Amino acid sequence: MATTTRLFDSARSLVAALVLGGGGLLAGTILVVVTQVAAVSVGFELTPLSLIVISLILLQGIAFGGVALGYVTFRGLGRDYFGVSIPSLRDLAAVVLGYVTALGAAFVGALLVSTIGVEAGSNQVTEIAAQDPEVLLLLVPASFLLIGPGEELLFRGVVQNRIRESFGPVPGIALASAIFAAIHFVALTGGAGARLVTISILFFPSLVFGTAYELTDNLVVPALIHGAYNATLFTIAYIAFKFAEMNPDAMPSGLLFF
Questions:
Q1: What are the transmembrane regions (predicted)?
Q2: Does residue 257 sit within a domain?
Q3: Residue 204 within a domain
Q4: pLDDT in the model for residue 245
Q5: Fewer CB within 10 Å: C terminus or N terminus of the chain?
Q6: What is the dihedral of CA 216, 219, 224, 229, to 10 degrees?
Q7: pLDDT at position 257, please?
Q8: Domain count, the chain
Q9: pTM listed for this prediction
Q10: Alpha-carbon distance 49 to 252, whole Å?
Q11: Is residue 21 assigned to a domain?
């Protein structure tokens, strides 16, 4: 009986994590689509830049944040469930180490894909930035203000914590990282196989974010690592597109943005 109960609790925890992660993405997508339709209906033409801004606010900001806060409210949990505090010196050291490790994982992934010669999916932002590199300058601060905090709040603060309750810390980190990487499928271009290659690469920096959160119990730490990681890749892409006139197809497959 006890074993059956544990299995049920574990299954419920995993399903809840999948629903929360997928629900955040779905809610954000609906908000973006509704906004696009409303804009078109009143004769307002959305540029790629304005669409990116709207997506950042509605997806990472409102949808991810709303799902996370709605979840803790539904369960009657306080906001301390997330673990948010001013970083200590130890936390800041973890940020630096995590940033270097995550960036290293991305470059190693890019190198492996290039060496093996397999096709990987590319991020849609890369294609937009190839036409208008200035978009990337907006995404650098957005990495710290919206992307890092919003995504870490939902996928580490809620999804990872929920899985951890039933499976423990290591499975919590691994499963939450897999869910987080998998939701990027819709943001990638290319065939299913190419997208799966990219998702596999994204899994490893995600492990770094999850591990940093587990070790520090402070959501600010993975949010800063994530933000710095993204900002660095956006900066590299800006330099490549603006000054080196790099073709988007030549962008290393591992250098993808969360």
A1: 49-72, 92-116, 136-155, 167-187, 193-212, 219-241
A2: no
A3: yes
A4: 62
A5: N
A6: 90
A7: 52
A8: 1
A9: 0.92
A10: 23
A11: yes
